[in-house]
Amino acid sequence: MKIQIINGPNLNLLGVREKSIYGNTDFDTYLNDLRHRYPAVEIDYYQSNVEGEIINKIHEVGFTSDGIVINAGAYTHTSIAIADAIAAIKSPVIEVHISNVYKREEFRHHSMLAASCKGVIAGFGMDSYRLAVENLINV
Ligand code: DQA
Fold first, then answer.
1. Which residues form the active site (predicted)?
2. CA–CA separation, 56 vs 114, rounded Å?
3. Rounded to an integer, what distance in angstroms lies between the CA atom of residue 57 and that of residue 129?
4. Would you please indicate which residues are annotated as catalytic (active-site) residues?
5. Of 19, 104, 115, 126, which has the most beta carbons under 10 Å away?
6. What is the domain range of residue 39?
7. Residues comprising the binding site for substrate?
8. Are the CB atoms for 61 and 68 separated by under 8 Å?
9. What is the pLDDT of residues 106-135, one digit of tens each?
């Protein structure tokens, strides 16, 4: 089984960026733990700060991957183009957020992507990614 995790803008700074919101762990450390937890699953990881690169990755893996877990960062709230890419592919996509976006500024309450996704997980810290991976494994 193959699962692709895609992180969008500013998520390369996890562990450095606004720690009170996003925590102290960098993504590579978290990913290492996740891979050890599910040794039978191939978990691939891609991060980009560039909208078009995220779209290219969705196209690249979207017909072969067993599932995609995407945290599109702020593009979640703005990107019709990423929403269209998710709608165009075959693999199920789960939208995740580390923070509980509904407790935050109003502009974070709306997702352009959610309607094209299988589901949304938000507010569980880094554990949001594990919950999404677990859903893709168990279905
Ligand atoms: C985020 C929430 C977004 O609103 C924000 O722009 C991010 C991170 C989260 O994981 O909580 O960059 O997607």
1. 22 (proton acceptor), 97 (proton donor)
2. 19
3. 18
4. 22, 97
5. 126
6. 2-138
7. 71, 77, 84, 98-99, 108
8. yes
9. 999 999 999 999 999 999 999 999 999 999
Give the residues across from 2 on adjacent strands.
42
Q: Which of 7, 51, 76 to mutate to test the pocket of ligand 1 (most atoms within 8 A of CB)?
A: 76
**Of 90, 41, 44, 82, nearest to 63 (Cα)?**
90
**What pTM, to 2 d.p., does this model score?**
0.97
- Looking at the 3D structure of the chain, how many domains does it have? 1
- When computed from its CA atoms, the radius of gyration of the chain, rounded to whole angstroms, is 14
Instruction: Report the separation in Å between the CA atom of 99 and the middle of ligand 1, taken as the mean of its atom positions.
Output: 7
Q: Measured from the CA of 108, which atom of ligand 1 is nearest?
A: 4
> Mean pLDDT over all residues of the chain?
96
Report the b/e string of 88-98 with b at 16+ CB within 10 A: ebebbbbbbbb
Q: What percent of the chain has pLDDT over 90?
A: 91
Residues in the chain: 139
Cα gap 24→8, rounded to integer Å: 18
pLDDT one-digit tens code per residue, 76-95: 999 999 999 999 999 999 99
> What number does the ligand 1 atom closest to the CA of 123 have?
11
